Amino acid sequence: MKIKYAVILAMVMGSVSAFAIPALQVDIGGGTYDSGTETTVAASDSFDLFALLIPDDAARNVKNPLSGTYRVSAALFSDLGDIDELPLPTLGSFVFNGTEYDVAADMAWGTPPVEDPGKDLQTHGVFETYFKEFNVAFSGAPQCLPYNVQEQIGDPSAFPGSQMYYRSFGVDVSSLADHYGLHFDLYQVVTRTDSYGNTKTDRTTFAPFSHDAESGTGRTPPPPDRVPDGGSTLALLGLALAGMGSFVRRPRG
For residues 41 and 154, is the Cβ–Cβ distance under 8 A? Predict the structure, then answer.
């Protein structure tokens, strides 16, 4: 009986694990999953970004058709704090899928999708900011075995199989200003007509915020007050304390 229950439990746990893989995910080749921020982080300024889709499946109640309209947003973030909608300083540029984009000239302000900014994708500590959207066509894309970006370091080609579709995009952020990076989200958008006859574009399903990705921001050396000095400061401090001690202990005449 114990063996029977163990087999049933294993089947149930396997089913739960399979169903736990999100239908939409973002991954970075050679990236590292940061459990603190729940984001896959690139290991260098130049990397391959992957958009992943498990298409519509009635058993999973997933409504992400293979032929749907999907987008990746590249959003500017900084380790210096929040980004404000102000006249932009020179923040540099980045390359996405072979094309260079200037932050000041080519990015919109707000929250995607661009047709209705500020109302659809939740902030999750990123928006509002400057962002750029890129279309992702999954129809006819390569396939791999479904995997969870939280558990495996990604490159979909390392998981041969089928059921999960993926597209790859080369990204280079080395020309962004120091302390700035790009955060990536993946979502489906649909076009609808409202009660007034106006055409609206809405974000519907999206990759969970625990399955998004970003570049690093560390393209600058430590500030001067944090540069290692080989212990000279500590040695000077020791001499100063020793001098103070001898002054205190010096006998009065």
Answer: no
